[in-house]
Amino acid sequence: MIRRLQHIKGFGVFADFQWPTGLPDFKQFNLIYGWNYSGKTTLSRAFRCFEQKAPHADFSGAQVQINTDDGTTHNLSTPHTAPVLRVFNNDFVRENLSFTDSSATPILVLGTEDIAKQETLKSKRTEREALSLDIEKNRKRKTGKEEEIEKALTRYARDCIKTPLAEVNYDKRRFEPRVEQCLARPEDQLLDDKTVAEYLAVYRSTDKKPALTTKTISLTSVLNLKKKTTSLLARAVSASNPISRLKSSPEIENWVNNGRPLHEGKDKCQFCGQLLPPDLLKLLAGHFSADYDDLMTQLRILAIEIEAAQGEEIGLDHKNDFYAELVKRFSAEKDALENAMKARVSALQNLAKAVAAKQTKAFTPLEYPQADDPAGQIASAVEAINKTISEHNERTAAFDKKRQEAFAKLEKHYAALFVCEEKYSESLQEIDALTKAIGEQSKKSGELVSEIRKLEEELSEAVKGAERLNELLAAYFGKNDLRVVVSPDKRFQIVRDSVVAKNLSEGEKTAIAFAYFITRVQDGRHPLQDTRIVIDDPISSLDANHLFNTYALIKTQLETCRQLFISTHSFEFFNLIREWLADDENMKKPQADWKKWGVYLVKRTDDGDSVLEEIPKELLKFKSEYHYLFSTLYHFDKAGAGDFSSLLSLPNVVRRFMEAFGGIMIPLSTGLRGKMERIFPDEVVRERVWKFINHYSHNTTITRSLTIPDTSECKTVVQSCLKAVQDWDTDYFKDLEKEVT
Q1: Are 609 and 13 in contact (CB under 8 A)?
Q2: CA distances from 427 to 149, 190, 424 (A)
Q3: Distance (Å, rounded) from C-alpha 159 to C-alpha 161?
């Protein structure tokens, strides 16, 4: 048995409904009262979703949760697990009956001639339902597994190749064939991290580099310079008449030697302007011999050679001229060459220092300097650089080919990685197993459908459904002028005196639809004792006599059902059901203590959402809607401006009460508009009341349906209506007042 509509969200006027704390649970019989637009039909549609095992087309994202007495919770996301439900509402009528051509979907009523076949039919239906659940479960598992693979393929294609390799058009459609290719032996395609990094570097080198020129060595031999230096250092100049002061002071000696040519043919000192001693140049010639001049000349020439050698270089390319994967190697090789060149410069500097020293010590032999020749290291470094340049040039020559080779290796590597990490083989095996199982189950289901159809044909006839429907129509109308017959295409045809019925009244349509529903409920497919029945406003457009007929049909035909829900906007029909309730319950007790019945009010709140609450005591107390309407207005007036609970429905209450009051006091056929002048003599008051009830009680547009009337306006209109009744007949007003207080 359904105990609660625990939660309704996003389902029409039930925006976010939670079963209120303290609201009694549903019982076997449940009566729901509410005016138009309060949410009765929406409730029936929520129930019907569970009957049809599918969400409502207009509220596909809605959430509905029902709780049953065994503690089970049923959600709209899994409606197939819900208990057996049958719902009568406008949707049921629209889907099964067409009053335009007076036709209806045929009803098959099970026969009683073969009990064994009925049990077999029931067993096969149960088996097929279980099989359908298994098929659905396996399909969901298969779909889920396929979606997992699709998402993983997309993720790997994007994160491993498309994004890092900047392959804009790469997606799972290109990646999946590579996965299939390495499915058998993925380990053959896996690469270590270093190799992956190398291939990534190759492929990411998107700029094709120009070819480079190999380097040659054209450097002055340090060894030869060292030999020349050693030879000159070993020489000692001889002089015919050396001057001791010059010999002991190399700086002055050098200065004097440099100045000698400046004084040839001169008799005065070019420095101080004094007369030169007559034998000075001759004395100096005895000191500075031809051997001395030769040595100095040789040393100057050697110094120039050494200085020139120090400026010699080997021109190298910039590291950015190389492909990315060669940069690190080239940088190391360049460092090695630069270190060797620094050693060379250091050796040359030592030679230069020795030559400079010898220029000041021409008369003394000097030891040869420390100056190792790094020619071998330089040659090795240049050879290594040239090898790198050759690889670079080869890379340039095969640029596109190597990029594609690198891409292919990486693609296979990531495809193999996908197979291993995502357990692709196991997933495919599981999908194959599910596909096979679904195929076998579908085949078995098809066989069961054929067997069930055959049994139904043997046990059922459409004519039995028509006969049962005609029995109910005869009981309903008390005559046989409206009947249904089975047409050649096996549909029901509604006829009046053997002629297709046209221009059916709204009352006839309602009666036919409800009788049709009861016949469907009693078609034998589910025991009535196991069926929950929901009936939404079954008395629309019916006169008073047919209200009793409808009540009688419900009580006699559906009283033994598992659970019954009846919703209505008619207070007369509400009172009929209330009398049925009174036979079973002590209405003086709180509803929570009732055993078989639950009575509820569905209404719209101030924010426009619908709620379900316990029926007000006044609705159980009064036997006429007229008294209840007066009570609502009277107590609203007494409650003061702070009562917001009835604002949304108040215009409807005012209109219905004034219509009833006008009908009682002014028994004319005119509507309320024609009686307003007599009820409200004051023109201003009359127009104000009429505007209020006509504007707010007819929610014909979305804007109006979302509008809540102003509290002060409501209070003023209600006071005007109550005053109109009191002015009409003071004693009558006092009697009403006494009845509701």
Answers
A1: yes
A2: 8, 20, 5
A3: 6
462, 103 contact by CB (below 8 A): no
Residues 6+ apart with CB under 8 A from 234: 365, 366, 368
pLDDT tens-place string over residues 329-355 = 999 999 999 999 999 999 999 999 999
- Closest alpha carbon to 382 in 564, 215, 533: 215
What pLDDT digit, counting tens, does each position of 577-589 carry? 988 998 898 888 8
Residue 227 CA to residue 230 CA, distance in Å, equals: 5
**Residue for token digits 């004693």?**
731
DSSP H or E segment with residue 73: strand 73-75
Three-class SS of residue 499?
strand
Domains of the chain (ranges; CATH) run: 2-99+504-621 (3.40.50.300), 241-288 (no CATH), 625-740 (no CATH)
Q: How far apart are CA 465 and CA 456, in angstroms?
A: 13
> What is the three-class DSSP state of 217?
coil
**492-496 and 103-104 strand pairing:** antiparallel
Token pair for residue 617?
């005591």
Report how far apart, in Å, the C-alpha atoms of 535 and of each of 19, 87, 473, 594, 665 are. Answer: 21, 6, 18, 22, 35
- CB atoms near residue 6 (< 10 Å): 15
Q: How far apart are CA 705 and CA 552, in angstroms?
A: 36
Q: How far apart are CA 513 and CA 290, in angstroms?
A: 145
Query: Cα torsion at 395, 398, 400, 402 (round to 10°)?
Result: -70
Global pTM value: 0.47
Question: What are the backbone angles phi and psi of residue 63, rounded to the nearest 5°?
Answer: -120, 130
On whether the CB atoms of residues 626 and 657 are closer than 8 A, the answer is yes
Quote the CA–CA distance of 634 and 614 in Å, as a whole number: 21
